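Posting here for the record, re: S-adenosylmethionine.
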Amino acid sequence: MEKTLIDQYGRTLNYLRLSVTDRCNFRCYYCMPEEGVNFVERKDLLTYEELEYLLAIFSEYGVNKVRITGGEPFVRKGIMDFLEKMSRMQGINQITVTSNGTLDRDQMIILKRLGIKKINISLDSLNRQRFFEITRRDKFDEVFQCILDLLGMGFDVKLNAVVADKKNISDILPFIELTKAYDLSVRFLEEMPFNGSGSFEVPKWNHVVLYEYIAAAYPNLIKLSDEKNSTSANYRIPGYKGSFGIIASFSRTFCGTCNRIRLSATGEFRTCLYGPANTNLRDVLRSGASREELIREIVLAVAKKEKDGFEAEARQAEAPKKSMSFLGG
Ligand code: SAM
Ligand code: SF4
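Prediction output follows.
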């Protein structure tokens, strides 16, 4: 019989978001504080060998799609060799990457050769000054050039923009205009409570407000059909090459069809971003557990996947204060 990971609500979980590091060369305000971030010690990270071992189990149990994330995946030494190995693993037929744009042309060439086609790049502003205020790094030109290079090399590029009041509202319409000339998808995300500080306000610019704002400027927008398990509601402006999407990441309107599980760089295994770690697979692995014991741990955790992000959040004793870079975005 085919092995699959199925939760108590009958959802098949075939999509793993794998964080390879909690470190990052940027300091986006919504993700981590400007200073004093306590990154984990190297010995606490899952080694590449451990990651391969776990991935082989996940793929045997039906996980066929893996998104590499972090922290910034390209700051971890050895990442390209790891991706190379991953691309040869049986069963994993789609590898995607989320990055802040810290990858060079040589790395892009390797990604292409490995068959990695879809890349998400985080970009919250098209204005150099606002980009600096948001990321606390003066890297707009490099990131934008990276996006142009990726497009030039034929990658399927999605831009992720976290939208927030007093930060980048004036970027929303320019982002849509960007899709006129470029065949990419810009996705607007609601801010989530994972900035590493514990303080958070419910986003004013939620998916409804965002949609109404855009629809008022573009009454002719066309709704596109969304992929199964999609977290974004997608649209296009007639005649524009690209498209845009709205992701209700805080409002959590898409949990019913969620197919995602997450593994942090330190082995924390989550069935929902908003919930506590169900188990730590690094600890289970390093305690000398057999393959069968690890599988049992994963299958049990998965079965208990929360109905939605609100139920998951309620399982946490206190308000979330972990950084997205630690959780794995
Ligand atoms: N460093 C890479 C990057 O920035 O794309 C990958 C890791 S990052 C944690 C993954 C995604 O999470 C990014 O698109 C980022 O914008 C998003 N993200 C981080 N913190 C967030 C928050 N508090 N609310 C919404 N999205 C967030
Ligand atoms: Fe780094 Fe990505 Fe977090 Fe920004 S969102 S600080 S780029 S991990």
